[in-house]
Amino acid sequence: MNKNEQLIIGVDIGTQGTKTALYSISGEQLASDFVSSVLITPCVGAVEEDPNNILASVIKTVRAVMEKSGASPSDVAAIGMDGQMAGIIGIDSGFNAVTPLDSWLDRRCEPYIEFMRQTAGDDLIRLTGCPVTYAHGPKILRLKNEFPGVYSRVSKFVEPVTYVVGKICGLAADEAYIDYTNLHFSGFSDNAGLCWSDELCREFGIDMGKLPDITEPFRIVGRLSASSASAMGLNGGIPVVAGCGDQAATSLGAGVACEGECFDGAGTASVFSCCTSVYSPDIKHRTVLYPRHVIPGLFQPMAYISGGGLCLKWFRDTVLEGTKTYRELEDEADMLQPGCGGLIFIPHFCGRTCPNDPDVKGMFWGLDYSHGSAAMFRAVMESIAYEYRMYLDILCGCGMKRPSTVFGTGGGSASPCFDRIKADVLGMDYSVTERKDTAPFGAALLAGYGTGIYPDLASAAKRLTGIAGTYKADPGRHDLYKSRAEEYLHILEMSGMLRKRSR
Question: How confident is the model at residue 404 (pLDDT cuts 50, 70, 90)?
């Protein structure tokens, strides 16, 4: 770090916890810190967080990175944040939380998912770009119908990033916002028009005045207050940008910023997304979500398995009771032929999210005495790749040109075996990014662009992100996997129908 070099702070407010990192403008990470989330589960299906715990985690981690780095507070030029996208907090007129964070993991709004689906149907997908799921709309309707007194106290509904930014910058409730990368999860938006939908708000009886302003993720929305600055070990007045959704930041930090590029977020959830200028919501399959990319004019259609990567952890820790390491399992799995001798795994332990179907659960299909732990582990990895292939086929059916490369990051991308499987199943090159924690870096890039440090956001993302290695798709394996992927989809659909019949 050069003396007096401008520095940028990026904060990632994730489901598992808050990670903050300090970067030079050349992209070097100088320090990082992490604080785990405190998830509250008062009853079955409920997952909440205390918004003030989230705020405290941001303050603590920012202070920690400043202390660890030894950087001068006067060198910090900007702060950017990203955060979990589908949870919602109600604030009063003083920007104080009157509800907990209703997490995206919370299932109590499920009756309202079906209500919204039946009431608005395809219009909801057409306008918001997203099939209704465990996100803002059903959560707001649950609060309105089951807790009207609390609903009446809500001045605005905000996401975790907005809540934190509002508190550290001293914003008023009428300055509350939602950035456009989160708009698809709202349930009441016109995503293409970048506005709230009169039609949907009328349909569901939602007071549009309770919905925040829509803004760009890189817009400076406030400056750090003196009291917050003191708590963080910073100087007051540092500009803070609006921020964006965690998946938007993750892909930006991985350098995915141009039309035709794909991204694999191989973490606890398995997320597959692409960059396109075409807005074509998935009305037919109701599988692909259609958020905006942080780059103006681009969209980032995506779909995900809620616990894709978590299935690998479950197999190692629960089935094998930790007797083998990930590397041992990966090396053994890599020795096997594609398709695992007909063994197929379904990775939807928490129910299928894309499309929403709680009746689809996890299972092994075709298990026999020839299958050992290596085959079962490989089947888990192959199942995630089969899902990705399905998502890609749907996207291409919506008018997107088939891409040639997918960029991968997250813990799962560190497995050569897993990366080769994805390359072969998808039939495209799989490039692993050098930077593993791309979300806080993506948030930092937004702050740098919003304050003029980076004149062009896409070129900065490309220039400051390296590739650790690329796995080429094998045409023969790709052809073999085609039939396996079709079999997977058949079993997937059949499993959901059988559970429905058994209820």
Answer: confident
